[in-house]
Amino acid sequence: MDKQKRQEILTLSWGIHDEVEQAIVHHTAVEGDDNWSEKQRLLIADMSLHLLQTALKPEPMCNEKLKNNLNAILTLSDDFVSEVDLKRVADALYGLEKA
């Protein structure tokens, strides 16, 4: 991907990111509410955009930032995927998994 295309995608992603963050700020659900999962989905979208931005930045990829992005996505997704313990996978990114 050339530099210009990469920058175009990053610029678009910041606009989308702003929209998603505003939706999160205005979402009134708190943990335990019936529509809490909808707010969690918005948070997953937000973190996914952060992952996109981390991956496409022109400078070398920062492994710590990548781990942080993945940790957030896996932790938030844990409630939606029952077949796999995503929280355990997220903890493994930092060497926190239990033996």
How does this structure look, described?
The protein has helices at residues 3-26, 36-56, 63-77, 86-92. The mean pLDDT is 93. Helix 1 runs antiparallel to helix 2 (36-56), helix 2 (36-56) runs antiparallel to helix 3 (63-77) and helix 3 (63-77) runs antiparallel to helix 4 (86-92). The radius of gyration is 15 Å and the shape is flat. It starts with a helix and ends in a 7-residue tail after the last helix. It has one domain (3-93). It is an all-alpha fold and 99 residues long. The longest helix has 24 residues, at 3-26.
The unreliable regions are none
Strand percentage lies at under 5%
Question: Helix/strand-derived class?
Answer: mainly alpha
| Rg from Cα | 15 Å
Q: What would you call the shape?
A: flat
Average pLDDT score = 93
What's the helix-strand series? HHHH
> Number of DSSP strands?
0
Put simply, the count of helices is 4
List the domain count as a whole number.
Answer: 1
- Biggest sheet record: none
Q: Which percent bin holds the helix content?
A: 55-70%
Compute the separation of the termini in Å.
41 Å
Quick take:
By secondary structure, the protein is mainly alpha-helical. It contains 4 helices and no strands.
Main attributes?
99 residues, mainly alpha, 4 helices, flat
Blueprint of the fold:
Layout: H1 3-26, H2 36-56, H3 63-77, H4 86-92
